[in-house]
Design a protein that fits this description.
Structural class of chain A: alpha/beta
Helix content of chain A: 25-40%
CATH topology of chain A: TIM Barrel
Largest sheet of chain A: 6 strands, parallel
Oligomer: homodimer
Number of domains of chain A: 1
Shape of chain A: globular
GO biological process, one term (chains A, B): secondary metabolic process
GO cellular component, one term (chains A, B): cytoplasm
Order of helices and strands of chain A: EHHEEEHHEHEEHEHEHHEHHEHEHH
Radius of gyration of chain A: 21 Å
Number of helices of chain A: 14
GO molecular function (chains A, B): carboxy-lyase activity; hydrolase activity
Distance between the termini of chain A: 30 Å
Pfam family, one (chains A, B): Amidohydro_2
Keywords (chains A, B): Hydrolase, Lyase
CATH architecture of chain A: Alpha-Beta Barrel
Chain lengths: 391, 391
């Protein structure tokens, strides 16, 4: 059925590889024993409303409170009714045409500021236990990511295994681990990759999550200042996702664990063929310096084991059709400003009108279902009404 | 004419957006007045052959001499007969099937370690004067890039204008300017962009040229260590080229100078549609924070004014055919290890056999000729013999 000028376009249903949930502010402080609760982040605002003192794990630092524009941006980023309520979220998903979604945490941005392994480990356990009732059990359409401490690999492995037992299918990882530990390409992490493959857990990296040293005045997402800064800072975040993927390829982590699957969320998808060629060139032309040698070509490993999600990028479609990279997944980035909340259907039609059905299905549905087999069935057909927000 | 199994494949001639020339070691010290010559880089090797002391512009630092493997890599990188001799180079180009090439300098890697504007300014003048006879006048097939100091914008402008008068068509720029000055997106550089447009000079950035603080022990091209380091370090260099392009787009530098053209050499080309989409998303979704507003869409500016060169990337061809990005240029990276010296024809056939003639012509010939109109005519037809190295 073709829509006429007076009909609304048929609804395109899509799974999302990237969405976010806002936990209660007091999640950790209300659920940890006092000894540990005293060490999780808390802020004391100055009476003048300009600065605050943040206390975290025995350290304290001062920082400016958001100005009016920054506060407005933050509020807009979390304006969706379902930002912090999974039941309300299902109505948002129905309205937008999102069938199922990977759900990332928000409190995790603090993880790199912890120093005491026990505090971080126990706080993330609280988060994982909480999300089962608050998100996972509300609907199979919501696929939350477990959180693990990257301050100690033993803690990461133990919590990954516990989370898998609780029903989690993916583990959220920052694009660079805790600054106390070596980078993802180091052998230190090899037992963790083995455990993730064994537990059948997807490694879900999200761009923009490199550790930030809040105590030294670094601000999340601010690399550039001055003209063009907003777009430069936004675009820069994609590189950290690309780096995570290439560290796992070049170090042999994915080569040695061929069933391990990686999601790089929110960083776009059309960088993959480019990065594959670049790594191929380096691997071959600098072969005398390359350690370890890989049993498969780096491009093959990247194409087979790394999945990538994008929101608005029209270049994602020719990437699937003409570059042979199939692991491309759409994502809403709900409820954030970079995402499609409020204009999801407009975006999906701009992206997919005129695109062959099999390509649209792969990007909107198939890739997600390949990454999370058996989690959720096919969505309503294109154009079908919303399914009464089934829980 | 189709090649049979016993014939060699027809020679494909290609212009190169990326090659390098090795200047004489004593170029600066032999051609500057003694007062300045004493301040250009010189190294004293320890008797044991393990360390050296490098003196530059009043500073001294110690560094390890290359080990056997590093020295071998360096020697291989400059093994081509024409690496430091333009007449011999023409024979190499004929053999490889390279018709014309952009020629980058090598000594410029030291520029970020100078502190005295006069020393750097006069050293680069020496380089520019030298390359006229040594490279430019040898053949119109060689298009050397002028060098300018980025330690002071006034010096950069004056030398850019002098070089244009001497016949230069492009100016080499590092992906980040001298650390004493603000980044390329800062207004400080706006008069330089105006001067470059006025002088009709292409801005030729080369990846891997971010300033390196040699005195603090930084090594060129080493960001990662450990497993995968060689490929990680190689791939990382492309990001600095992408950043230079996006700084010039987002700051308004290209928007305000619509005739200015930028070449990002050696960093690949298929990143451009990806970066265009990413910048579009940031520009629109973070619009409340975007300064300056641009008169054209960032993707349009990037597609029209930024040119990119690649060596082996097969993804470059669908980028032209299916992403609508036309400013893609092949490059040999002669004589370096990342390049095609010794296997240029094999690479060109792998890339272009079966590709429509107009696409092959655009990438191998047309893009270069659009960037440097009137510099050089069409090369010999595909399969034609080498042209007796005409000078």
């Amino acid at each position: 059925m073709t829509a006429t000028a007076t009909e609304a376009p048929a609804k395109i249903w899509a799974n999302s590889g990237d969405s976010h949930f806002l936990e209660p502010d007091d999640l950790w402080s209300s659920n940890l024993p006092k000894r540990l609760a005293d060490l999780v982040p808390r802020a004391e605002k100055d009476p003048d409303g300009l600065w605050e003192t943040v206390h975290i794990d025995g350290q304290s630092f001062r920082r400016r409170l958001p100005n009016v524009a920054q506060q407005e941006f933050y509020d807009l980023s979390n304006r969706a009714p379902g930002a912090k309520d999974a039941k309300l979220r299902l109505a948002d998903l129905d309205q937008e045409g999102v069938w199922a979604e990977v759900v990332f945490p928000s409190l995790g941005m603090w993880s790199s500021s912890f120093r005491t392994p026990e505090v971080l480990r126990e706080a993330l356990k609280v988060s994982n236990d909480w999300a089962i009732d608050a998100i996972m059990k509300v609907s199979p359409r919501l696929v939350p990511t477990a959180q693990v401490s990257t301050l100690l690999v033993e803690d990461a492995i133990a919590e990954l295994q516990r989370a898998a037992g609780l029903g989690y299918r993916a583990v959220f990882l920052p694009t660079t681990p805790h600054p106390a530990q070596p980078d993802w390409n180091n052998k230190y992490w090899m037992p963790f990759w083995a455990a993730a493959q064994e537990a059948n857990m997807v490694l879900a990296f999200h761009v923009g999550t490199d550790p930030v040293d809040l105590a030294s005045g670094q601000a999340v997402g601010v690399t550039y200042r001055g003209p063009g800064g907003a777009v430069l800072n936004y675009t820069e975040t994609t590189f950290s996702g690309q780096r995570a993927a290439m560290k796992l390829v070049t170090s042999g982590a994915l080569d040695q664990h061929p069933n391990l699957k990686v999601l790089i969320a929110e960083g776009g998808a059309s960088w993959v063929p480019f990065l594959a060629d670049r790594m191929t060139e380096g691997y071959r032309q600098h072969s005398m310096a390359v350690r370890p040698k890989l049993s498969r070509a780096p491009a093959e490993i990247l194409y087979e084991q790394v999945y990538a999600s994008f929101q608005h990028d029209k270049s994602a479609i020719p990437t699937v059709m003409h570059h042979g990279y199939r692991n491309v997944m759409w994502g809403s980035d709900y409820p954030h400003m970079e995402g499609t909340f409020g204009h999801t259907q407009e975006t999906l039609h701009e992206l997919f009108d005129g695109v062959p059905d099999d390509v649209r299905h792969r990007i909107t549905i198939g890739t997600f279902n390949e990454l999370f087999p058996g989690v959720i069935g096919e969505p309503p057909a294109v154009g079908a009404p919303a399914p009464q927000s089934q829980a």
